[in-house]
Amino acid sequence: MTVVMEVSVVPLGTGSASVSHYVAQCVQVLEDAGIPYQLTAMGTILEGELEELLSLARRMHAVPFSAGAVRVVTTIKIDERRDKELTIAGKIRAVEEKLGR
Amino acid sequence: MTVVMEVSVVPLGTGSASVSHYVAQCVQVLEDAGIPYQLTAMGTILEGELEELLSLARRMHAVPFSAGAVRVVTTIKIDERRDKELTIAGKIRAVEEKLGR
Amino acid sequence: MTVVMEVSVVPLGTGSASVSHYVAQCVQVLEDAGIPYQLTAMGTILEGELEELLSLARRMHAVPFSAGAVRVVTTIKIDERRDKELTIAGKIRAVEEKLGR
Amino acid sequence: MTVVMEVSVVPLGTGSASVSHYVAQCVQVLEDAGIPYQLTAMGTILEGELEELLSLARRMHAVPFSAGAVRVVTTIKIDERRDKELTIAGKIRAVEEKLGR
Asked: Which family, according to UniProt (chains A, B, C, D) (predicted)?
């Protein structure tokens, strides 16, 4: 079954308050992997098999180190259901239906 | 200055694995307040003055209790910059520009 | 009823990977307020009335700005039950009892 | 280098607002693995090599499913420094020293 995962990668002590170039390199990891994802203002949401997503999250966590950061705090949030398939679009649609959209 | 905030409201012990109807009622709080927000598959992202957003997050946290839940875990993530204005669209655009979109 | 809340305050772009002096100033806010709290390796856990804790979390979020940071990401996690009182010690004891301790 | 990780496992729709027995089984996974950990009121904090901790977090995430839950939301927060070793005790001591304890 697919799971939905949110990943947020935050480098510390980089001397600049901007982190968008690190985030762009993290998103590139997902582009190269070719999995469905949603870039949001507070993280990136992935959809796929849990093992694959954990491995991608692990690589996203490493991105700022290769760009010179010495400390990274990464938050990974997994949503998994075993009674039905979870997808990014399905989770949003379930809420929007209840809002009458 | 505006801040960007992510809110995720999770009721526990409701007897159903589905939470979309609670999330829809949380989103209705934001619709009624008329502030910019982005519904994602892992939470809802708000934009505005910190005090207003904290008060809206507080009301979103209370929604499942009015719908019968007895336990709620709510995660509020605040991103605030004092050197420039943060917006939902601006944060996404900053990343997309670096991806050459 | 009391709630239990975890607060994690992370300043970005400070030029140093160390954040312990910011965290210490955040903990001082709680010391001065005289509420029960547990300092952990990944955040600080508070116990009290929700309104009071949100107000303290708000002041903790502001600490790094007064110490010169220009960007702060603060995560606030609220655990509230309406069927029984939640305390820091009670939540830990409930798990330890099941571990036979 | 060791990293410090916080794991919080939340089963949804179990029909009971109490989750301590799931948390106790998650902690047992760490007991059996013999790694340093700190049980807190809002999660469990682990210390060790990132690969080992991700694998343990993966097993903790699976615990509620084996106990009958059909949906689980797990939050994993990684703190890694490449300029010095991070430990649970070291991170707490760094803050307490600044508080003059």
From this structure: Belongs to the UPF0045 family.
